[in-house]
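Students often ask why we bother predicting the structure of a whole assembly rather than each chain alone. The short answer is interfaces. A chain on its own may look different once its partners are present, and contacts between molecules only exist in the joint model. In this exercise we take two input lines together and write out one structure for the complete complex. Read the inputs first and try to guess which parts will touch.
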Amino acid sequence: MKRGQTLIPLEGVIGSRLGPALPESVAQPSSMIVTVEGIARQTLEQARTRLVVVGALFGLALLVVSGRLIDLAVLGGTGASNQNHMLPPADRVVRADILDRNGHVLATSIATASLFADPAKIIDAPDAARQLATLFPDITYGEFLQKLQGKSRFTWLRRHLTPRQQYDVNQLGIPGVGFQPDERRLYPEGSEVAQVIGYADIDSHGIAGIEQSFDGYLAKGTDPLRLSIDIRLQHILHREVAAQVDEFHAMGGGGLIMDTHTGEILAMVSLPDFDPEQPGAEPKPAQGEPDPHFNRMTLGVYEMGSIFKVFNTALALDSGKVRLSDYFDAWHPIKIGRFTIHDFKGDELPGYSSVAKIFEISSNIGSAQMVKQVGPEAQERFMDELGLTKKMSLEVPEVGTPRIPHPWRPINMLTIAFGHGISVTPVQLVSAICSIANGGILRPATLIERPDGEVPQGVRVISNETSDTMRRLMRLVVTGGTAKQFGNVPGYLVGGKTGTAEKIMLGAYAKKHANLSSFVGVFPMNDPRYAVFATIDEPHGNKKSAGFETGGWVAAPAVARVISSMGPLLGIPPVDADSPVIQAKMEIDVNPVGRHIAPN
Amino acid sequence: MIRITTLLWIALLVVAGGTVMHVSYQVRHVEKHISDLARDTRQEQEAIRILTAEWDTLNDPQRIDGLAKRYLALESTPIARVVTLEEIPLRPSEEQLANLSAAASAKVGKGPRGNSRPALNRPEEAAKGPPAVALLTTTTINTHSEHVTQAGNTAGEARLVLARVERR
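Now the answer. The structure tokens for the assembled complex follow.
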């Protein structure tokens, strides 16, 4: 061992383990300071550094542990993991309920168990199939056998068992079958609200109506979804529309109840309808038969006929170009091109008639003469403002796009004046009617309950004065006009407008017996709160309606019955139609002194 | 000296070990209790869901309407009989009654309608009979939650709903 010039002393005891590398140090006492150099020294230094690092790490770990102990014991800190013990095991997420505006359940999910099999583990498939077939009469032995002998390692045998059925299957003790927790969607109201709610498939995925449009929200299983629908009104409307469809052997029908101030849809019926728990049960409709899954109120677009005279009259009066005291020629049919506009036989008005008379008797000729004063551009603009030219936004996926003329020529203007040549969805129509009656503010229709007092701003479409006049005119239709036989409900001031449209079939107006007969009623007319709409598709006149198939005879009775049932239910106080206050609010002069406007 | 320290340590170790075991058994016990409670809660919740569905099935207006038409001789209230509370006259005081009967007895013999009952505000209403205040109950539907919770595990009694599930 050589002695160099620079020696760095190494502290610590270096024992004999250094071995033959340090022959001199062996003999020396342990207290001596030993100095080493070269490779040995490097090794020692490395070992020392390692010791220090490991020691420091252990010290740090101990420090952390004791710090945590002090935190828990002395400071009373709580670890995040503590709370996990307090929670029950995570619940299964169940699809959220759908409620009506009063909290009545329209759609709910209940926990069920579904039976599956692993065919590879089945020992005696024919025996198992035979036993299962006795438990489930809706599935045959052959179906079970086929499933149990399949190649896959997993097959559903039957979905959604009740606890009793589950118990029975357990009693069989068949190896290779098992249960999986599942959920089943239930619709306590059956078909009555089916068109609105839609339905969910066997795996609880919404595939129509509200179930589809709110699928993501409902699947999260949080708060229930509250609709604007009132199930009591829904039942009344359903009952009355169905009664009319039956009585007049119609193809179908529909109805709507809307809050005139908020745009909330309180009831919506489309017939025929379906059972949402067995949506595929009925056979596919044949050619020309109505589809039960088709929502006429939101998806169907129809020419609504004379109901459009409400908009036409409001437009004419609000433009300032037509006064209530004006008289028009409602006698001579209008010839334009190869078309002739004429009135229903028996409803013709000889000579000149006032605006009120034209509206009351629902004259096509008079309405067309009136709109001539305004022009097609203003009419198109007004229809646009009323939201009748574009696809509306509503909370269901089934929304139809209106059919409007393009370009908007004078001939279209004349036919649109009495509701032909433009097709809209009934929801759009009723929204627009609400805006005409409620003081002139259009608010979007909705199927979701608006929180209390939260009414959207809305858009003004006509002045308050025009709206007041229109209310008087709509009242006149019920007291003396086309709906006087059935539209009136003593005690409630109902106003409204009838509409009978010839249906378009294969591009041409159809034969007799192919009408869409509708009535929209608004009440109470002195301060409108509800609009009730009913439409009957292809009614066949009978003795009771004296052979008539028009809106006033076919649809108005349903609306009147709905109003007389829903009024007391909603606590609307009846009014005395003969009281002077009401008379002053509703009166209108049918034969005022005014100018005669000649057709040009 | 060394022996005493060692013994002390051993004793401490035994105590510590015993405590840990005791606590761990306690925790296991409590955890079992919690999971039992959670399972019961879930079962109750599922029962409540089924019973709610049953309740709303029973309360379906269509069903109630049908049952009412079948078993009840009642009709819906005519609108003319619905009045507001303000329209119902207050009960006359003793003095007014005395005045009225005095006036009535003075008129006795003049006509068949001379009775001592106080006239109602609106004679035409009086002629139709006493104004019946229509039952304007909004709904009985919202009161079902207590029925449901009382029912507890009786979900098996939800016959209508279970029948619908079985029907597939």
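Check your guess against this: The two ends of chain B are 82 Å apart (CA to CA).
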